[in-house]
Amino acid sequence: MENGLSLTLDHIFSSLFELSPEVILSIGILLVIVVGLVKKDHAITTLLTLLIFSFSFLFVLSDLDTLQQPLLLFQGMLRKDTFSLYLSALVDAAGILTVLMSWRNQREQSHLQEYYALIITVALGAHLLVMSTNFVMVFLSLELISISSYVLTGFSFDKKGAEGSLKYFLFGSVASAVMLYGISLFYGFTGTLEFLSEEFLKNLAGNITPLFFIAGLMVVSGFLYKLAAAPLHPWAPDVYEASPMPVVAFFSTVPKLAGIGVLTRFAMTLKMADQSYDWQSILSVIAILSLTIGNFSALLQKNTKRLMAYSSIAQAGFLLIGVVAFLPQGIHFMLFYATVYVAMNFVVFIYLQYFEKNGFVTIAEFEGIGKTFLWPCVFLLIGFVSLTGLPPTGGFTAKLFIFSSLWDAYQLSGKNILLWLLIFGLLNTVVSLFYYLRIPYYAFIKNRSINITTNILAFENLFGLVLVLLILLFFFSPGLLMGWINKITFVSVIRFPLSVIG
Amino acid sequence: MPETQTHYTTFFEVCLLLVVLLPLVSFVVSGRIPQRYSWVVTFTAPLFLLISAIGAIYIFTAVWHHQPYIARVNWFTIGGTLVSAGVYLNDIAALMLLVVTFISFLVHLYSTGYMAGDAGLTRYFAMLGFFTFSMLGIVLADSLLLMFVFWELVGFSSYMLIGHWTEKDEAAAAAKKAFLLNRIGDAGFLVGLMLIWAYTGTFDIVQLSDINEVFSWQTAASLCLFAGVIGKSAQFPLLTWLPDAMEGPTPVSALIHAATMVAAGVFLLARVYFLFTPAALDVIAGIGILTALMAALSALVQFDIKKILAYSTISQLGLMVAAIGAGAPAAAILHLFTHAFFKAGLFLGAGIIIHVLHQAQQQAHEHFNVQDIRNLGGLRKKLPFTFCAFVICGCALAGIPFFSGFLSKDAILTAITHWKGDGFSWKWIVLASAFIVSFLTVIYTFRMIWTVFMGEEKRTASLPVVEPPVIMRGPVAILAVCSVWLLVDINPVNFEGWLFNTLHADGNFHIGIISIVSALWVILAVSVAYFMFRSKTIHDDLLLNNFYLDKLYFKIVENPSWRLAVFTDYFDRRWIDGFIHASAYAQVTVSHLVGWFDRAIVDGTVNGIASLSRGVGNFTRSFQGGKIQSYILWAILAIIIFLIWILF
């Protein structure tokens, strides 16, 4: 027993060393708060946060480079593999971009150190969530993200922010409760919380009941809530509208990445364990719903933030398509899509923030500003074109990949629902054109003379240019990124041969 | 030809290349030199031409009396037919090469004085170089097609140079007229080329000359080629452009419109003489002599010194063409050769008169038309050098013994006499006309020289006239020297010199009684001129306006064209536009129908889809009431619906 305990402690310690990015982030949270207490200087806090994210990012990258095989940490609580590392890297990149965005906003942002601390916390939660293989860990990291997010939503410290924050909290609590109920049902069936373990699968395979399906759907609902996918999407527009712009940008990427990561893992397990219920069809319907609700509701929006909220719902649908294919390359393409999504989403949000600062909030106010703000509008246009999925942008390549994997899945399984998903996806791409191009349409086609002098050398333009070049690069040589993504092995499927389950 | 290879060295070929390309280099260089440094052109252009002329002398000595030099490259192939381009340098071509480069050099030299201070100096020298290059192209081309290309280029440079003074409306009109009339002739040339291609499948002059038989198509083809000659050499009925072309700078008139370009027609006739059938030659002889007579009569009454020279040029060209028609290309080429020198000399002399009088006018602030011989007189005292040169060249033109013109004209008269045969036929009229022309030539030359240089000074009396700089006098002096009999032969009464005998290889006629007759005839003409026309001027509107040819053309071509234009305009408006309007109305009607369909059916569908989308949007959005409890309700409801859908 003594020996066993010391072995366990050793394992925990060695696990801790494997978690260097997460450790950095955790220390970073404290450091930011402490430094914020001592120094009231905005720049130092921002730089420190930037540094923390950069370090974490670099460690993740080096891990991604050196990791040979998946590691189980903390006795099966976490699982570190290339898939989780890639998503962590994306989360850190999104974190860096958020900090850079907030930099432009730091004078207006009160409680800056708490603000940054919360952002780092969300990122930490996302890191952990994509690694989680244990339901408790899943719940903890999900709540880590959620609770920090509730607070962040209110960081504009006005009535609207408070309202949004409360709505988010209430909705999130229900979603968490639903998920928790599902988790407890699973525990009841299998006696284990490690949903990737052989025990879990074995016990599950023998007990396929409707109740099992209910439990599975409840857990999935929790993830869908993080993903802001239908039918657990209604919180998104209100929350996005209430939050500060960098936070919106952050919300539309980091929790989504974490949610899609854990959903992918869990969905793979479900598919494996449960042959009687057609999870592929269920996820397809969810994707169709997300696409349709997101795109069609966005058509009539007047506020840019709400527009982007619906856009992010629709994009969640596209991300789901990659998972729905249930093919290795489908997941690779999903990761590619996620990467492009981070880049294009941030381009759009950077300029929305820029225009918001110049007083353009509703879409109608963008009328005729294309001449005054030529380059910002051009970059914004490229961002929107990419979100729509038209060449020559990375968004086109990503959509093409996603749809091609879906087509392959349809060819393999012959399920009609996949074909319908494909058709809906294509139709929704057309629909999305109308609202994505509305802002550029107002900016370029409509005429209005404005007397604002602009500085072309604004920080936003440099920032935007880099991202725009990245988006174009993803189009012109997607092989660069795909080569890297293809090295990622999504091993949770491979670890349990079908014979074990049968 | 193996002999060709042995006789002609690489040095020869390099020289030939230099001769041809240096004028082109001059064109490029002159064209590239900026306006500020235009004085540079006055050094480079004559220099290039001097080298070219020296090279031409060497080439002439190498080719003369030897096997022709032939070199060709493949130009292009049409189907299986190969069209080549190259050089065919025989005796005639070598002679022309020499004449063209030599006179071009003299004119370049002269122009540096004449054109000094002109705003378009670089353009002038560029086009002069381009002209020389194109002319050499005509001379050397071994195929009719290539020759036609250069023929057109020559026409173009002539157009550019006639209209050199773009600010003058007359110059622009004259350039346009020259261009248009030449195009009429060239259309004939082109048809001739097609005929030749259709019947022989080759443009190559050497290959064409191998045809021994006489085919009926040759008459048509050769007459078509002759149409080109009519245009270029200003023969009847296309002769009216040459007098107008005198609007260009005088050195240009000397080079292009007297010595070389207009002679290109005669050269072409001599070059492809073998193609011509007897019938075609008769036509050519007739047209030639008619032109000569008409132009000589017109020259008699002109007042403009350059017009007199222009008509005299036409007249002489007519004689050459008649000589070709009479089957004596050698005589024609001999006359071309001598004529090039003395006519260039006369033009440059006239140029001196115009130039110095202009300058004097500017000093004295007096203005009158210096080209009008009625304003001139007694200039021999003020311009003694010019007077001498003018008289020498004039004597050559008039065909006075001991001058080159006498010999070459003798050759032509002898040729015609031989050609007319023994019996009495219409050919006698040609001979008589030729004699009349030579008589008239003496009279108009005498009149011109007498009016300008002898008698009392008229309006020039008060002007401070001085001789021009040596750069202008030099070329005239050289040309005057070249106008004496020594150019042709040592013997001043024998035209069968080095030149004629080489060209006239078959020797079907020889010097005879005609020479003596001709000499006497000319002396008679001089005395008649001296006694009858010294104090008297003839005035005749018919002749002054060259038989009203211009008016006639206006009446028969321009008026009907105008009327046709008015009619077609009316037709266009009334019927074509009417039809278009009707179809436009029909289209508008159909458009309305289609528009209705578009609005009601197509747009209706689209709007229907749009409103459907809006409806879907409104529906999906309707859940967003802003109340969190309803959000949660809908979410839970959705999950339950899922459960029901899957489970039941």
TrEMBL record, chain A:
Pfam families: Proton_antipo_M. It is an enzyme of class 7 (translocase). The chain crosses the membrane at residues 12-37, 44-62, 82-103, 115-132, 138-157, 169-188, 208-227, 247-267, 279-300, 307-327, 333-352, 373-397, 417-437, 457-476. It catalyses: a quinone + NADH + 5 H(+)(in) = a quinol + NAD(+) + 4 H(+)(out). Residues 132-412 form the NADH:quinone oxidoreductase/Mrp antiporter transmembrane domain. It is found in: Cell membrane; Endomembrane system; Membrane. Its main location: membrane. InterPro entries: NADH-Q_OxRdtase_suN/2, ND/Mrp_TM. Keywords: Cell membrane, Membrane, NAD, Quinone, Translocase, Transmembrane, Transmembrane helix, Transport. It is a multi-pass membrane protein. Its EC number is 7.1.1.-. NDH-1 shuttles electrons from NADH, via FMN and iron-sulfur (Fe-S) centers, to quinones in the respiratory chain. The immediate electron acceptor for the enzyme in this species is believed to be a menaquinone. Couples the redox reaction to proton translocation (for every two electrons transferred, four hydrogen ions are translocated across the cytoplasmic membrane), and thus conserves the redox energy in a proton gradient. Belongs to the complex I subunit 2 family. NDH-1 is composed of 14 different subunits. Subunits NuoA, H, J, K, L, M, N constitute the membrane sector of the complex. This is NADH-quinone oxidoreductase subunit N. It comes from Ohtaekwangia kribbensis.
